[in-house]
TrEMBL record:
SUPFAM superfamilies: RmlC-like cupins. It holds the Pfam family PCO_ADO. Residues 1-43, 60-86, 181-220 are annotated as: Disordered. Residues 18-27 have a biased composition (Basic residues). Residues 71-83, 181-192 have a biased composition (Gly residues). GO terms for molecular function: dioxygenase activity. This is 2-aminoethanethiol dioxygenase. CDD domains: cupin_ADO. InterPro entries: PCO/ADO, RmlC-like_jellyroll, RmlC_Cupin_sf. Keywords: Dioxygenase, Iron, Metal-binding, Oxidoreductase. It comes from Pogona vitticeps (central bearded dragon).
Amino acid sequence: MQRIPGRGEGRKRGGQAARRRLRRSPHPLRLGGGGGGGTMPRDNMASLIQRVARQARVTFRPPGANNNSSAGGGGSGAGGNGGPRFVENLQRLQQLLNEVRAEDLRLVPRGPSAVPGPVQPPVSYMHICETESFSMGVFVLRAGACIPLHDHPGMNGLLKVLYGTLRIACFDPLGAPADGPGPGNNGGGGGRRSACESSTAAAAASPSRPASSSSRRRQRALLRSHQLYTPASSPCLLSPHADNLHQIDAVGGPAAFLDILAPPYDPEHGRDCHYYRLLDGQSLPPPGPADQLGLPKEVWLLETPQAADFWCGGEPYPGPQVSP
């Protein structure tokens, strides 16, 4: 929404090369068409995505790591808890992302590329690059597709719309997840399901029955925003403690966004992806300004398995080569 593992097929939870933004199971980067052609990038754009990658490396490099990149000095821990230098580097990264357009990555508006078989993925992922400190790639969503409500444990992230319109709901986690029903809730499990963001095809959910809602973890959260993003919008940010859970929907047609996660998903280091939905009796307000929606607002979430009808395919990245 990660997160893309390997180069085969898998789901959205941890990471291996390709985008661990989903799970460590492989992501089908070889599936689908080349996704490209069309408008050529602006003259100076062949180096723009390279500059974005280098700035991401500087911004999210581990504490104490040496970095001789010309993108700028300083840096901070990948956890985003650094001081003024981290803020400065993050602002520079946001500025560069603001300049990126679909044509700079040789993308034309469309949905995910077709794959063999009768069932097509609602979302596909193009892996651009990945290091130990960050991953970068493009998610392509078909019209009406949803990347479900999920978290990014201990991670920072930036999302920049390349084409289309996304509806994004952002939540802050409030404390650690807990077992049992939340206050003021009877523990029911069947409320409205929040959107889905996941990662690979074959990994789409096992047919086994999920655990009862009473045995799943509840997460207290703060709904901070629910708004529309377009290519003219500034990047949507997340940090370990603010806007760390989000749900992403494509509205009015196909959409695509450039995605940076720092560090990538990695279950072995406690950065696995967890899916949630709003508990019974709760629903998202229509998108709009936070003050008009009465936000922020406290809500309770229920952890769920990855939805059986959601997965993410993989396809080749058609844009300029990147070496972070």
